[in-house]
Amino acid sequence: MPTAVDEVTAKTEMVEIEPNTGLALKTATNEEKANDEPEAKISTGEAPKPKDMQQKNEPGDPDDAKSQKVGEEKEPECHKEQEADVPVEVEPKTGVSFPVKLNDGKQLEAVGLRKKSMLGLGIKIYAFGIYADNDQLKALVRDKIGKAPAKPTKEMYHMVIDSDVGTIVRLVIVFSSLTMSMVRKNFDEGLGAAIKKLTGGKKEELTKMIMGEASDDIKLIPGSEIEISRLPGYILQTKVMGEVVSNVQSELLCRAYMYLYLGDDPFDKEAKDKFGSSLLHLF
């Protein structure tokens, strides 16, 4: 007589999940799913089971172990699934969506677009979302400003730029021909200009550190993500598609990077204004 486990296994359908949205795309039976698995190409040396015997797995069947292995391999993507359950804000010029809250609690303060002039055309390079620790921001603005101004001020933006408040800027690539060497050059130029405005000098050796050991062979396709975080102790950490490529401890580099988004000539003025509005709501 079949056990309850056998009956459940026989009737269970495998659901294919779209990793970015968490929605079910289609269902397939265990037999169909097995035919799609790469492991199905490996011969076990056993004769095929009769069709009526393929409806369920015997206790200790290797398929049970295979199913467990597949589940374990997908666990590292769980943070994406968690973010997919969170409401999102869409960057309107690109359609790229950003979760309004990250797994570590940081809140989305603004979204924007980085454009670059090429051959006289404004090319969309990447959409970005700026996240920050709201508790730290709230303590900062109340301590430094006290009373909320009528509108965001230059003092408020520079207060955030110069602070050690935890922030993350998530970049989502939209330009299909972008390469790592282009990204490296873009940051070298942008950070170099920011450092010059902040100090009046140049620090070329410092600007080159932000991409660290990121190989120029890395393929950046639309949807690829780069995250640059300001960590406690003025550490600027860069991740390319989830892999840490640099950790640089430098107050100047941290200030210069935030200046690119909140300074006098930001990448996206609308995003800077939105960040300023978020600051006002903290009072």
TrEMBL record:
Region (Disordered): 1-85
Name the record gives this protein: Chalcone isomerase-like protein 1
Organism (species): Coffea arabica
Family the entry assigns: Belongs to the chalcone isomerase family.
Pfam family, one: Chalcone_3
GO BP: fatty acid metabolic process
Superkingdom, natural source: Eukaryota
GO molecular function: fatty acid binding; intramolecular lyase activity
GO cellular component, one term: chloroplast stroma
Domain Chalcone isomerase: 156-274
Biased composition (Basic and acidic residues): 29-40, 48-83
